[in-house]
Amino acid sequence: MIWSIFLQSAKIERAFFLLNQAPGMVVVISFGLLCLLSAVLAWIDIRHGIIPDWLNLTIAGAGLSKAVFIGGPLTGLEAACEGAAIGAIFWLLRRLYFAFREVHGLGLGDVKFLAAAGIWVGIAGLPMLLLVAALTALACAAVMQLAGRQLTGQTSLSFGPFLAIGLLFAAGLQLHWPCC
Question: How far is CA 153 from the centre of its chain?
Answer without folding.
Answer: 27
